[in-house]
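#struct-help
A.M.: can someone run this one for me? Single chain, 125 residues.
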Amino acid sequence: MTTRKLLIADDEPNILISLEFLMKREGFDVILARDGQEALDAIARDKPDLVLLDVMMPVKTGFDVCHEVRNSETMRDTLILMLTAKGRDTDIAKGMALGANAYMTKPFSTKELVQKVQSMLDMAP
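D.P.: on it. Structure tokens below:
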């Protein structure tokens, strides 16, 4: 079985570091992006199996990234799990409408996050 590749896109250094540590420990190959544009570039270049995408980021928001990925011929099948401190229903609805595969609100338990990522990847073709 090949190592699954995850992109973690978040502008908060502490979150990036802890998620990178967590996901590497779970056996994933991890790529990091610190803003929405970096995330888009990394998705196009590295073709991750799944993207952990923060909503509130500089340059481009997670919503922008999600929208662009879904409208791209080459990237549209990328799995997207949106992570946000905004748990409002309108934000969740917007994320899902833009094509996010799933949504988790911060703070979340790391165990919950790992289970969610695993189940999303297990269901992927």
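A.M.: thanks! The longest helix spans residues 110-123.
D.P.: also worth noting: The beta strands are 5-9, 29-33, 50-54, 79-84, 102-105.
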